[in-house]
Amino acid sequence: MRIQAILMRGRGGQSRPTSLPAALGLLATVVISFMLPGCSSKPAKPPVIEATLVGTGSLGGRVALEGTPPQEQQLPLDPVCSQSSEAHGMEAPRFTRTYVTKDGGLGDVLVTLVDIPPQPIPEGTGALVIDQRGCEYHPYVAACQVGQTIHVTNLDPLLHNIHTLPKVAGNKEVNKSQAADAKPLEFVYDKPEEFLQFKCDVHPWMFSYVSVLEHPFYAVTSEDGRFEIKGLPDGKYKVKFKHRKAGEKIEEVEIKDGAATVDIVLAVPAA
Fold first, then answer.
1. Measuring CA to CA, which residue among 94, 77, 84 is closest to residue 154?
2. Cβ–Cβ under 8 Å, residues 9 and 15
3. Is the pLDDT of residue 167 over 70?
4. Do 52-116+221-271 and 117-216 show the same overall fold?
5. ∠ Cα 109 235 146 (to 5°)
6. 84 vs 158: CA distance, rounded Å
7. Strand 259-267, strand 57-66: pairing
8. CATH 2.60.40.10 for domain 117-216
9. What pLDDT, on the 0 to 100 scale, is given for residue 48?
10. Cβ atoms of 179 and 154 closer than 8 Å
11. Residue 254: helix, strand or coil by DSSP?
């Protein structure tokens, strides 16, 4: 029998009795090696995502706001936050950013293509940087891709903490403190999620909303509602416009000869 051979095998191929403890240890090693054949193998690499949309066309346009938005609330900055805000050249007083508008346009609208297969992060893409400056997050609304690094910096002369509150399973909640002049904190999310919330528990008015997407074809509108998405081939697309308070719309557009324009209107919800 195989076990008997193990007990009798010695050096140089000569058979001789093996001590019982040594034999049992050798037998256990053999059994475990059969039970766990892959225990010493390296973890499999994630599948490579191939780019299926490559082009030089662009999609641009503007989002307008219909209706009168509610009055923004003044931020209750303490003296240290106020001094830091002033040191960074920010106008005082500071207000919430529920609706950011200019010339009838609506800012902080997430614009993204829908029904697009996952795409690789474009070569040369750096980290998304979110600054804590004047006890506010900048930008207030941003976007990045799945697997892309997010750097959060603290440019204030005081302690902040970064508390992320994802709602999608697989995106981990994180709560880390960050001292003044500390190195950036890094965050990476593996699942797509819109408006993933970053907050500061020390200063409860501080929020940032990061949308994590599976492709690079997105934009966030400027204060006057304008946006541009580049790198698209000619073709028909569905474009989603989403604002945290003014809702969302999906429009069908066609890029011809490398360009397309789409303008939409989002409305302030009825009280």
1. 84
2. yes
3. yes
4. yes
5. 45
6. 9
7. parallel
8. no
9. 80
10. yes
11. strand
